[in-house]
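re: ur question from earlier - yeah i can do the single chain one, its not a big deal. heres the input i used so u can compare w yours
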Amino acid sequence: MTMRILYIWKEIIMSNLSVNHLLGIKYLSLKDIEQIFETTDHFKEVINRKIKKVPSLRDLTIANLFFENSTRTKISFELAQKRLSADVVNLSSSASSVSKGETLIDTVNNILSMKVDMIVLRHPSPGASVFLSKNVNSCIINAGDGTHEHPTQALLDAYSLNQKIGSLKNKNILIVGDILHSRVAMSNIYAYQMLGANVKVCGPKSLIPKYIESFDVSIETNLTKALKWCDGVNMLRIQNERMSESYFPTVREYVQQFGLNKKILDSIEKEIIIMHPGPINRGVEITSEVADSEQAIILDQVENGVAIRMAIMYLLASKI
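and the output i got, formated as tokens:
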């Protein structure tokens, strides 16, 4: 069984990705996404076996550099790396020399000089991963950069939807919440549209970027109307940590207009797929009753995140 799977992987890796890094969805082609999904299918088989580990990256060392707080993404990457038998180094901003004034480039070059092969970077500055890819000699994976992109989250979201409703071509996908400060929203838009879906956003006008319509994305400020239109919805949290001012009167008012609850779901008289990238603020953007319902695939997203990240690191390893 193991030898058969390894043979399949060798066949897959012969068809390389068009990129040397994963910096954002906008840098990928449709063929890249399809290949990542195909490879993810194989790794999903692995993580659901009794023995969940393969020796695919046993000769590689990967450093996780997280300069922002993270739970799901960091654990997901580390689990994916260990499932692939890679050696793993974890570094946070508080434990790095960046806190002493060292530049990001110097920090990464020092890590690379210790024979690290791949860097997974989360950083508060938009474009940090692109900047790093141009200034250091290593494979860079963007685990979220400011309000720019979060490509692995978008890939696992699209993959999870695909598993539930099939091809996304001509499907209607809704993104609700804090679009302005969300890197997930931008990556989702790129991924869904590349896969042929129609995308609409919903939220307070103050939390929707003025340029959003230039991405061929429509806007709806009435949540019920938007839900009646869609096949799947991604509920985003309010990113208070990125706000220096108030974008709506009160949380209570936000919940009344844009919070998803069972009453609203029942009123639309159709079943839709409900997603959330986490962390969930229960009772704000989504109620516990909805988050834990059969229509929600939130835990499927988390599981698929490990397999997606395994696939990405495996495919990019061929470039090293």
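Residues 151-297 form a domain with the Rossmann fold fold (CATH 3.40.50.1370). not sure if urs matches, ping me
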